[in-house]
Structures are given as C-alpha cells and as structure tokens.
User: Fold this.
Amino acid sequence: MNITEFLTISAAIVPDRPGMVFEDRSTTFEQLQTRVNKLANGMADLGVGAEDRVAFLHVNTDHYIEALFATSKLDAVFVPLNFRARGEELSYMINDSTPKVLFVGPRYVDMVKSFADGIESVKHVIVMEGEPQDFLAYDNVVTEASDDERFPESADDDLAVIMFTAGTTGFPKGVMLSHESFSSYILSNVTPADPDIEERNILTVPLYHIAGMQAVVSAVYAGRTLIIQRQFDALGWMKLVEQHQVDRAMMVPTMLKLLMDHEEFHTHDLSSLQVITYGAAPMPLEVIKRAIQELPNAHFINAFGQTETAATITMLPPEDHDLTGTPEEIERKLKRLSSIGKPLVDVDVQIVDEDGEQLAVGETGEIVASGARLMKGYWHMEAATAEAIRGGWLYTGDLGYMDPDGYIFLSGRAKDFIKRGGEMISPEEVEQVLQSHPAIDEAAIIGIPDLDWGERVRAIVVAKRGQTVEEAEVIEYCRQHLASYKKPESVVLTDELPRNPLGKVLKRVLREQFDAPIGAAD
Assistant:
C-alpha cells in the first residue's frame, strides 16, 4: 500500500475534518489532498519522477507533511534531514542520497549556500516561508501547479523513504524503508478514520526521526487532527495541549521529564490527554512512575523500536502501567515497567546468542526481529547491510532477555556492555539503580579499559538541584542493590549528560570526556 493512499482514504471518509493545525493555519483532509496533488505536479514540472530523491531540511511544519505525501505521489523517495546536523554532516547526507530537489527552511538557507558548490545532484532548492533569495519559493511551486489527481504506481516493496540514523558514531547510515515498512505496521495496529470519532494528536517529535514519521502517517490514516509544534519546548507544548484539548501525544523520556519539572506544569489543564506513547530512549523508572501519578487521565504506552525496524516492534500496553491491585500485582507491574513489553503482531522477535541461536527464557542476548516492514538495508552500504540482516533476521544491536511471561527487558547496546574480569555488566541495570538514588537526577554508566580487569565501571551522574553526591556513598548504595562486581568503582559528577536530539545519552562522548584510568581495585 503506497503511503499516499492513507491520505486518500481519510480525505474520502472525513474530508471536512481538520487534518493539520500549524500555528495560524488549519488544513482539512480534503484541502491537504488538493495541496499534495498541486505540490506533486509542481515537482513533476521541475523534473522529479519515479525513484528520484527529494530531501527536506526544516523543523516540523505542515509543509513537511505535504512534501512527504507529494513525494510518494510521484513514486519518488523522501529523504528527511536532521536540521540539527552540522554543515559537514548535511553535505555528506545530501551527497550520499543525491536528491534532485531540496526543500529547506529559511534558517538553513545560508548553511546550504555554504556547501552548495560541493553538491551536484540538487537541481532545485525550494525555500519554505520568508524570502527565497536565490531559490524557488514553496508557495509559488504549489499555487502555480495543476491540482490534477496523480496516481502512484509503486509496489509495496519499493523504496519510499531514506532515513538517516542519528549517528552516535561516525557519519549516519541511510536506512531504506519501503511503503510496506509503514503500511504493515499501520494496518496491523491503527484503526482507520471514523466520522464519529474525532481525536487530536500533538506532533512534537522531529520528522527526521522514525517515531515522528510513523506518528504522522498513522494519524493521517486514523483521521486524527495533527497539532504541529515546530520544535519541542515544554511551555509551548502545554499551551497547545490545553488550547486544542489534545487527546494523544508521542514523547521521549527527556520531554516528559522536562514537562513535569517545569514551574508551570500544574497551572495548565492537561486532562484531555488520553494516550501518551513514549520511547526512542530508555525511560527511567522514577520518571514514568511520577508521570502515571501526575497525569492520571492518560493511558501510557512504551513503544520500542529503531529506524531499521520502521518504528515499534515491542509494546508495553496501558494495562501494565496501571499501578493498582494487590501488593503482589503492583510489585509485578512495577517490575514490568522496566521492560519494553511484548512483540507486536506483525513482527517476530527473538533473543539470540552470538551464533544466532535462540536463547532460553532469562538468558541475555541480542534482540533480533523479522517481518515484512523491516528496512530493505542501508543505502550504498552492502557490507553494513549484510552485517545487520542475517538469515532474514535484523540484528538490532540491543541486548536483552525475555521473562517467563514473554516481556522483554533491555540490557543495553551490545557495544556499551561492560566486561569486567569475565563478568558481563549491563549499563542499563546499574543506571536504573543510580536513578533511584534520592540525590541523583540522571546517570550513565561506561566501561573504562583496565589492564587487570579488562574493563571497570564508571558512573557519570547529575545531582538533583540543591543535592550533593558523595562518591563513596553512591558506590555503597549500588552495592546494596546490585551484585558487588556490578557496582561503580568511580563516580564522576557533571552538570549534564550529552544527548542526541531524541534524548539518547551519547556514551561515545562520555568515554572520550571521562577516560582517565580508575585507581586500584578493592
């Protein structure tokens, strides 16, 4: 099913319902369909055709969504670019994906000009908002084009999107996602538009991230009104939720924490929120427990996946976030809150050893997935593709184990696992303990090379405001909650943890910053 068909369905079922609200603009599903046709025809007039790449560099806007669907109308390939990337990274991604057209926000025009001589594939630059300077104006491309309906011919398995990974090490890889990468997930997990059901979905996760992209296509198919925020800021988010009585939200843990820590959190009416989906980075147990208490009307969903899996492959549903029942039931639910839930119906998930053999319940290994919607591979990277996809299974690089009830618990990234004296240590397990310490706000665990032990454990912590952190006391706290070999042997205090835009801690940066050897072992 072509991505653009999801819009066609909703435009037919709920044509007059607002499909997008962006600042002072509101666009119905029927109007969106018309604008998508016009933009597609405008791009066709510029020479864009099947399999051509179309790149987009801007914050979240309604134009972003129009460009995604218009590109699919042409059987072309959409390439969202990270607007937080440096010029060198952007020029790399553009030269790697070789788009024919580049849509760009006004704040990025000068950056594009700075490396324009080094990119040969781009024939047209289209500027959204403001003066186009030496380029084409978005509004002109749309308004001057025909609104004739266009009918894509792409097959389900044809390439639809090249989405670059966050790139925690080196330059990012282009993940190739087909139309089925989106339709398989959506048709299995999302209810189509219904004239009698109206929902409003706030969009704040950036659209260069798979969580944002899937949120858009899912919301369009479900006939939900998208309330679009350019970039997340806690106060602006709360005002939009209150103003539009938003029902649904997708958030990363950092966003949820920033909301609850904001001085105006309790002055805004957020009671309309019915569903809050979170993911993209590990959720500290104390943060989700607090969120469940602070937002009692909301049903929480933990969605785990990655760009290569086309978003969610496992889910912890709302019922596992309901912390009521007998003491035994509450204890079991608290344990499950630290999990990523169970596999979705449209994907197979296993835990395997280094030889690809499935492991028994409770044994830690790599999480692998199989299904129609997984990536086709990495763009122009055959060796990396062969390493990631083996025997029909995608090796995620995430380590975890499955409990007797089928819930999967993360143990960290394979490259972040610490091997101390032959014992394997999960950074995530130690981090959860550290974040339960009353004086610690955030924590990250890294391994420090050691001649005697191979690696030793260092904790990088951020203290809560007004609190002090003592190394010896923190180490003893961990010793009381963990096997002795897992406890940190060094604790370093810092003002903040380096993170990528979606809230994942950059362990590579921490290892570079705090690489001093640890003293003699106990």
The first strand starts at residue 18 and ends at 22.
